[in-house]
């Protein structure tokens, strides 16, 4: 039985969470000023706050997290004494077993017949965030193996695993980045201002933009309707609209979450890894994966792809490693064939891109920059959209039906989806690119004092509009998509 | 010895820059708060003046006005439809589903009767202990919502309904999609299990099954939502209640409705959408809705419930949003279902019942979505006299059957 | 009295410089392939976005060839491969000479 995410917990999209942040901040200032050992006291306060936050999801979840933290800390000590591959594999084995037991076996057991073992597995809970903090534990063990100079105390390690902004859905952090900050966070005025700005931006992205795309303007419209309630009958146009809608829904949902989380940490003087950087402006699949879910894609690169690809020198093995790494990336999302096929598609796209680069090299092809970047963008954007259809489809059969509609040109004469949804999707997608362009322009003009002053003067209008929109749309009880992973 | 103060020019500039930054930040925070509060209060006032018609029939704001030909007993029966909780019990229960045609009388004075109320009055005149009519209609209801409402009807009442009366309009067959308030019905334990059982026992209606599977939400652990709440939820509920003391927060729902209305106005102007613009009926949603209707019939059959389906009145002027070919197809498909389930379903055709003079026109006096089409023909709603005519026809064609069924209560579940 | 010149260390330094030069050429011609780009031994490659991280594998294989060492990839951290200097330092630190 999987706990339904977000139903009974301290949700990032709640008034409770917005009060939780200043409460912990004030307590932090208090312990910093009154205690004899402020660093220790602050770390214990943050750990207690993190455990309290996580406990509101489930005490059972918290037990699993605590056990994982203690075991991984012990494994770190064991590995540090003698950093051998064998000892590293013990640590990898334990964490993969955790994931298998809590995440994958219950799903697979539902395909087994009725029986004592399957009943047992079906009643295993899925602790929210287990995929994320288990990967953080693995990266810690890898860093110990690589003889990084790391010496976290037990409190610091538990805090690293349970740090409340990141415990639910990342970003997947690394100990070398967080440990110095846990020891000496120094939040400045800039940090607090930027943190608040990002929280507001994240809430707007999630409660307004992602919500409109996911559930539609009117109830029963939106991406969820298009994938879940239509059994068949999509036209080619419908599939493209759903692909665009879902891509942007995921982006605003997860980038919105990331902004809230990164902003929260920033208020406390902690700088987390970025997770997104204008991914829809990518001009190649390789570039896309340096801009989308960056914390996890870099994790896969550093801990899976690099060791795997360099195991054998042959070129074909490098390509195979790319596909395997991306399939594991897909598998990380869940034990469904749609995720695995999506991962394989991503791997094949990356291999195709590399092959094209080889072709350019051999033939000395020099495309004009505008053709190269526009063409690259168009192909990348379309390829990513189509792969998201597989990711989102409820099963491969549905994905097949939707792709069937795409290739039949007669199905482009009309669309079946609600007009509002089609309009909203197009407006939001176009606005994204317009705003990205304006941001680039603003970056170039930032040096002008006049522009800076205008920016400052008008920013309260932006904040006010954002807050009002967030409050209005909060009537819909939204849940983050990535919590299910 | 005189102290000589030394100061670094750079330190002075840095302090000045810090002061400036602090001032700017203070300005941004203060102005943002001020603008948010002022704009929020203004929006709350606007929302209060333009209350968006909620998805459910707002029976709580309606009353029955005395009118010639209506006795005190009639008025009481009409009122009982609006406040079913206070109504005396009867032998049978009738659940009146459908879209806004059931209850909307755009140009009628307050207190005017709708077809459900007229049905109650006319049946009670024959036997006032026979049937209690409840309205389950919602604006724009489609078949999947109808099915969910029918399944949940037993949850709302001490016993299941004996008769379901519903109109069938082409608009109900065009779309798939269930609004959140009706989706939440699926979380109730018996509705959830009824849904699962319907899906598993009707594998031949695959498209309908797929649509219903998407509605299966996590069940509430007990039938009492309040008991399921965690401490975190209770704290959040308390905070939300406190936030409601700010009028802008309390008016969120109305603001969403108002926003949708303004969006629709803009969309209509931009795309030249008029009330008589032809609306296509796409094959796939239509086919799924036919399957969902068949599921409803099978459900009623299994529960010994009776269905009275009537093709809703159609305004017969051109141009018309409904395509005659689509209407004919719907009639053909539904009649075929009624033949197959004739023991359960009675089909009536009231397509041409309402003459042109009894149809409503949109006016700018109306609230909500109706005001969008001011000055245009209303193809979906009719006058109070038409509501009476409709109810009289139902009683004439099926009244004796309904009264007969009231003596044979539906099987217990 | 003149100091004896350590010809061995001069040879080693020359070989290393040659290897660095070859690596720089390889990165410019085979990986970056953009005119006007300058790469020095201390230019950040991955963190600056000059090369994508997947090209690191090709650079890694080239590094093993140029240094004639087997380098355990699992021991490498991202920052070890960010500049040409750090790559060669990593190869010396972690790599084992090939048989």
Description:
- The complex is a heterotrimer of chains A (485), B (413) and C (99).
- Among the domains of chain A are: 15-185, no CATH class; 188-236 and 246-274 and 415-485, no CATH class.
- Chain A is 72% helix and 0% strand.
- Chain A contains 19 helices and no strands.
- Chain A has helices spanning 15-34, 38-55, 59-81, 85-109, 116-122, 130-145, 154-162, 175-183, 189-215, 223-229, 236-267, 285-288, 294-309, 315-333, 337-363, 369-392, 396-407, 419-445, 449-473.
- The longest helix of chain A has 32 residues, at 236-267.
- Chain B is of the alpha/beta class.
- Chain B has one domain (50-182, 248-406): Rossmann fold (3-Layer(aba) Sandwich).
- Chain B has helices at residues 9-49, 72-82, 115-126, 143-156, 170-174, 180-183, 189-201, 206-213, 225-228, 231-243, 247-250, 252-270, 283-302, 324-340, 384-406, and strands spanning 92-97, 131-135, 163-168, 306-311, 345-349, 359-361, 377-382.
- Chain C has 99 residues and is mainly α.
- Chain C has a single domain, classed as Non-ribosomal Peptide Synthetase Peptidyl Carrier Protein, Chain A, CATH 1.10.1200.10.
- Chain C has a two-stranded antiparallel ribbon.
- In chain C, α1 (7-32) runs antiparallel to α2 (55-67) and α2 packs across α3 (84-94).
- The longest helix of chain C has 26 residues, at 7-32.
- The N and C termini of chain C lie far apart (41 Å).
- The mean pLDDT of chain C is 82.
- Chains A and B meet through α1, α9, α10, α18 and α19 of A and α1, α6, α8, α10 and α12 of B.
Our measurement of the CA-to-CA distance between the termini of chain A, rounded to an integer number of angstroms, reads 15 Å
Low-confidence stretches of chain C: none
Residues in β-strands, percent of chain A: under 5%
Q: How are the strands ordered across the major sheet of chain C?
A: 1-2
- Please mark out the parts of chain A with pLDDT under 50 across 5 or more consecutive residues, or reply none: 1-8
The percent range for helix content of chain C is: 40-55%
C-alpha termini separation of chain C: 41 Å
User: Count of DSSP helices of chain A?
Assistant: 19
General form of chain C: globular
Task: List the total number of helices of chain C.
Answer: 3
Radius of gyration of chain A: 23 Å
E-strand count of chain C: 2
Chain pair sharing the greatest interface = A-B, 49 and 61 residues
Q: Which CATH C-level class of chain C is it? A: Mainly Alpha
Largest sheet of chain A, in brief, is: none
Count of domains of chain C: 1
The general outline of chain A is globular
Give, in order, the helices and strands of chain A.
HHHHHHHHHHHHHHHHHHH
Instruction: Tell me the total number of β-strands of chain A.
Output: 0
User: What is the CATH superfamily label of chain C?
Assistant: ACP-like
Question: Radius of gyration of chain C over alpha carbons?
Answer: 15 Å
């Amino acid at each position: 039985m999987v706990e339904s995410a977000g139903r009974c917990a301290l949700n990032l999209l709640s008034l409770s969470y917005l009060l939780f942040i200043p409460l912990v901040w004030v307590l932090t200032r208090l312990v910093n000023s009154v205690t004899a050992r402020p660093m220790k006291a602050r770390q214990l306060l943050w750990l207690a706050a993190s455990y309290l936050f996580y406990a509101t999801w489930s005490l059972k979840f918290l037990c699993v997290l605590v056990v994982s933290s203690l075991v991984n800390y012990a494994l770190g000590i064991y590995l540090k004494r003698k950093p051998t591959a064998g000892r590293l594999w013990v640590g990898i084995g334990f964490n993969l077993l955790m994931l298998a037991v809590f995440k994958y076996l219950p799903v697979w057991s539902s395909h087994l017949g009725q029986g004592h073992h399957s009943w047992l597995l079906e009643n295993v809970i899925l602790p929210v965030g287990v995929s994320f903090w288990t990967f953080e534990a693995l990266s810690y063990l890898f860093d110990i193996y690589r003889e990084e100079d790391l010496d976290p105390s037990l409190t610091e390690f538990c805090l690293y695993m349970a740090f409340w902004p990141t415990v639910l859905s990342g970003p997947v952090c690394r100990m070398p980045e967080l440990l110095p900050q846990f020891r000496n966070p120094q939040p400045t005025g800039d940090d607090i201002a930027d943190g608040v700005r990002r929280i507001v931006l994240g809430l707007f992205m999630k409660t307004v933009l992602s919500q409109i795309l996911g559930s539609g303007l009117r109830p029963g419209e939106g991406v969820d309707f298009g994938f879940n309630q239509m059994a068949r009958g999509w036209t080619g146009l419908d599939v493209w609209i759903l692909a665009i809608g879902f891509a942007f829904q995921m982006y605003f949902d997860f980038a919105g979450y990331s902004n809230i989380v990164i902003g929260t940490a920033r208020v406390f003087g902690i700088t987390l890894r970025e997770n997104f950087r204008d991914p829809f402006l990518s001009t190649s699949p390789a570039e896309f994966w340096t801009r989308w879910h960056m914390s996890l894609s870099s994790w896969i690169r550093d801990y899976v792809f690099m060791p795997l690809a360099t195991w054998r020198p042959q070129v074909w093995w490098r390509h195979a490693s790319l596909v395997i790494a991306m399939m594991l990336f897909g598998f990380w999302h869940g034990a469904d064939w749609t995720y695995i096929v999506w991962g394989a598609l991503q791997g094949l796209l990356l291999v195709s891109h590399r092959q094209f680069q080889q072709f350019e090299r051999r033939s000395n092809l020099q495309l004009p920059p505008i053709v190269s970047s526009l063409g690259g963008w168009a192909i990348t954007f379309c390829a990513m959209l189509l792969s998201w259809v597989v990711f989102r489809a409820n099963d491969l059969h549905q994905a097949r039906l939707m792709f069937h509609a795409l290739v039949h040109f007669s199905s482009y004469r009309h669309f079946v989806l609600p007009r509002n949804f089609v309009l909203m999707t197009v407006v939001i997608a176009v606005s994204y690119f317009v705003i990205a362009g304006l941001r680039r322009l603003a970056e170039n003009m930032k040096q002008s004092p006049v522009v800076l002053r205008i920016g400052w003067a008008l920013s309260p209008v932006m904040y006010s509009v954002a807050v009002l929109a967030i409050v209005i749309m909060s009537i819909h009880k939204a849940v983050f998509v990535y919590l299910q992973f | 010895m005189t102290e000589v103060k030394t100061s670094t020019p750079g330190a002075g500039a840095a302090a000045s820059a810090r002061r400036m930054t602090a001032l700017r930040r203070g300005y941004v925070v203060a102005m943002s708060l001020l603008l948010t509060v002022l704009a929020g209060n203004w929006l709350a006032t606007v929302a209060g003046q333009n209350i968006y018609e909620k998805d459910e029939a707002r029976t709580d704001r309606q009353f029955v006005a005395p009118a010639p030909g209506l006795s005190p007993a009639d008025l009481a029966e009409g009122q009982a439809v609006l406040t079913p909780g206070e109504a005396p019990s009867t032998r049978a229960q009738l659940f009146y589903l459908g879209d806004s045609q059931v209850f909307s009388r755009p140009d009628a004075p307050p207190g005017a009767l709708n077809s459900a109320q007229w049905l109650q009055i006319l049946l009670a005149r024959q036997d006032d202990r026979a049937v209690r009519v409840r309205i389950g209609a919602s604006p724009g209801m489609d078949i999947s919502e109808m099915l969910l409402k029918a399944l949940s009807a037993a949850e709302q009442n001490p016993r299941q309904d004996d008769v379901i009366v519903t109109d069938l309009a082409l608009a109900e067959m065009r779309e798939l999609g269930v609004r959140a308030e009706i989706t939440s019905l699926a979380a109730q334990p018996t509705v959830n299990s009824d849904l699962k059982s319907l899906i598993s026992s009707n594998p031949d209606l695959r498209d309908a099954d797929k649509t219903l599977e998407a509605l299966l939400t996590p069940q509430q652990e007990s039938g009492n939502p309040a008991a399921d709440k965690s401490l975190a939820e209770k704290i959040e509920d308390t905070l939300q209640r406190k936030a409601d003391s700010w009028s802008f927060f309390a008016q969120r729902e109305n603001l969403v409705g108002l926003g949708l209305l303004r969006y629709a106005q803009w969309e209509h102007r931009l795309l030249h959408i008029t009330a008589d613009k032809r609306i296509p009926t796409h094959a796939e949603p239509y086919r799924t809705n036919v399957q969902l209707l068949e599921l409803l019939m099978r459900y009623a059959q299994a529960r010994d419930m009776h269905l009275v389906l009537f093709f809703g009145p159609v305004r017969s002027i051109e141009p018309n949003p409904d395509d005659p070919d689509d209407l004919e197809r719907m009639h053909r498909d539904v009649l075929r279902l009624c033949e197959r389930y004739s023991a359960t379903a009675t089909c009536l055709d009231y397509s041409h019942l309402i003459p042109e003079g009894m149809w409503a026109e949109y006016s700018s006096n109306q609230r909500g979505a109706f005001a969008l089409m001011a000055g245009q023909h209303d193809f979906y709603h009719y006058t109070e006299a038409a509501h009476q005519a409709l109810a009289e026809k139902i009683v004439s064609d099926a009244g004796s059957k309904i009264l007969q069924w009231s003596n044979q209560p539906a099987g217990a579940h | 009295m003149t100091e004896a010149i350590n010809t061995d260390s001069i040879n080693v330094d020359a070989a290393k410089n040659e290897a660095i030069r070859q690596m720089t050429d390889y990165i410019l011609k085979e990986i970056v392939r953009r005119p006007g780009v300058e790469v020095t031994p201390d230019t950040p490659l991955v963190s600056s976005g000059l090369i994508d991280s997947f090209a690191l594998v090709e650079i890694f294989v080239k590094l093993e060839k140029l240094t004639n060492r087997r380098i355990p990839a699992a021991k490498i951290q991202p920052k070890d491969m960010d500049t040409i200097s750090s790559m060669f330092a990593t190869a010396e630190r972690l790599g084992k000479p090939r048989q």
